[in-house]
TrEMBL record:
Membrane topology field: Peripheral membrane protein
EC number: 3.1.2.2
Protein's name according to its UniProt entry: Acyl-coenzyme A thioesterase THEM4
Superkingdom per UniProt: Bacteria
Species of provenance: Saccharopolyspora elongata
Domain Thioesterase as annotated: residue spans: 77-144
Amino acid sequence: MKEVADRLNAVADHLDEHAPAMDQRMVDMWSGEGITRHDPVTGPENAIAPPLHLTGKDDGSVEGEVALGLPYQGPPGHVHGGISALLLDHTLGVANHWAGQSGMTAELTLRYHRPTPLFEPLTVTGEQVAVDGRKIRTTGAITARGEVCVSAEGLFIAKHLPRPR
Ligand SMILES: CCCCCCCC/C=C\CCCCCCCC(=O)SCCNC(=O)CCNC(=O)[C@H](O)C(C)(C)COP(=O)(O)OP(=O)(O)OC[C@H]1O[C@@H](n2cnc3c(N)ncnc32)[C@H](O)[C@@H]1OP(=O)(O)O
């Protein structure tokens, strides 16, 4: 293991030496497609993203499928509750974008109905249900084998932080 660790550390050092400065990386990250490349849920450029592939549906909702492995484990053989919250926060946010009115999470209420299994296909859904001025209400769920494991209700407030330039 030490030899493997040494090799990985050498690769990490090499990448650090050749990476642009952090402020430049921030500008690059937020150019073009921006968050969809680097976010921690769907982003192919983010090592901690499972990644979940979300698709916008004609009815205005979004849906994706993902199977989660060991890095996301909480209870034995099951998904950590914070990871479920991460997936749902993001999926509700994407549902808002898909519906045309987006914002920042002000409240996220989760109900954990049953343990969410690792290694099995999970369906993650999100749907905007109401917009009242700057307040956006959005719901979603994670299901496995057709049963709801986690359901979510979110309040988002229309606010957008500036992209780094
Ligand atoms: C499938 C195809 C896809 C295509 C599209 C793909 C593109 C996808 C692109 C991108 C997807 C991105 C997805 C990201 C998802 C992740 C989102 C996050 O995790 S965001 C980070 C966590 N959230 C924060 O850090 C917020 C921190 N809090 C704040 O900044 C503020 O507190 C904020 C914005 C929440 C509100 O602050 P104020 O100053 O702007 O607004 P005030 O005036 O305080 O409130 C406005 C109204 O909202 C109510 N309000 C505010 N906060 C509330 C709360 N917590 N509970 C209840 N009401 C609240 C207030 O009472 C007020 O209501 P009255 O107008 O008076 O009726």
